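Reopening this one. Same input as before:
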Amino acid sequence: MYFSLMPKKKRENLYNREREFEELEKSFESGRQILLTGIRRIGKTSLLQAFLNELSERKIPNIFIDCRSFEKAGSFDKNGFNSRFKALLDKILSKNLQILKKISKISLYGIEFKFNSDVNRFDLFAYLDMVNELMDRKGTKLVIALDEAQFLRFYGRGGKEILNLLAHVYDHLENMIFILTGSEIGVLYDFIGSENPESPLYGRYINQITLERFPKEKSIDFLVKGFEQVGIKPKSEYIEKAVESLDGIVGYLSMYGYIVQTTNEWQKSLEEAEKMAFKIVKKELNSLKNRSENYMHVLKAIAFGAETFSQIKKYIEIHYGNISDQTLSNNLNALVNSSFLEVEYVQAKKLYRIPDPVIKKVLIS
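Same output, byte for byte:
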C-alpha cells in the first residue's frame, strides 16, 4: 500500500522508484560505498528499508542504524552508537557460531583479539575485520546502512574516526558495503569529503543516488493509484488541490492519502494533513532558529519573494537590521547544504528557492 505513516518495507509499496531501486542493486553488486540523498520526506528511508528487506529475503546479512537517534543538541552519543552497532554485529555473529569457532581468536594489528562485552573498550575496526572474514568464509557480503549519516560529523572530533573507519572498510574489507543516506545533502557531501584532500575518503569513488520530487503528473498518479489500492474512488478536483498544496513530496502526499482513507473527508483531510506537516516543519525551523536567528531571516526573505543575493540582503536589512555580505553568504551556503534551500540559475542569475512548499507556507503564515 502506498499510504502509510511509516517507512515502506516492500518494493511493491514504493511508487515510481524503479530506477533508483535498480541503481541500488547495481551499486550493491559492483560498488564499495553508496550515498543515497534527497530532501526531507522524499522517501529515502522507505527505499532503503525495502532494499534491505529484499537482501534479507536473499539471506544477505544487513544492519540499519538511524544516526539521528544519537544526536543530542549538537553533540553525539558515541557510546550509544557504538553499543547499538556492536549489538547488531553480535546478532550476525551469533548466527554463525560454527564458523566463529575457527576465527574467534585472530591476530589484528599485531595483537590477539577476543570478544569483549565492554563497549568502552569496543574496537570497531577489529570487529569489522572479524565480521569481514566471516563474510568471506560464507561467500557473501554485509550491508551496513547508516540513515541520516550527516549526524556522524558530531562523532568524536568532526567525525574523523568514522571517516577513517569508512576508508579502512573501503580499502581492505571487500565483503562489506556501507550505504549512507542524508537529507542535508551538502552537509553529508562535505562530511564525506571524497573530493577534499584532507578527508580520509579523498579520491575514492562513491556511488551516488539522488531521489527527486515527483513531477505534478506523477504526484496525481500516486494519489489516484493509492486510493484505488484501498478501494476509494479518486476525486480529481481534491487530488489536484492536494498536489498543488503539498507538491511532489511523497511523505506529505502519503499523509494526506492516509487521512482520507481513515476519515473519508476529502477537504478536511487536506486541512489535517497540512496541520500535521506544519507541526513537523515548525519543529525543524525552531531547531534551525536555535542555531541562528539569521537563518530564519534569510528563509523569511525568500518565502516573501526575494530570490537573488541582493534582494535577500535588502529584505533582511529593511526588516531586521544590517547584515554583512560575508554573513549572508555563509547563511545561504549553510541553508543550501542543509537542503532548506535550492539554487537555480536563470539567465545567468543565481536564484534561491525553498524546495519544500510547507516550509514556505509556515514562514509566511
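So the earlier flakiness isn't reproducible anymore. For the record, Residues 155 and 208 are 23 Å apart (CA to CA).
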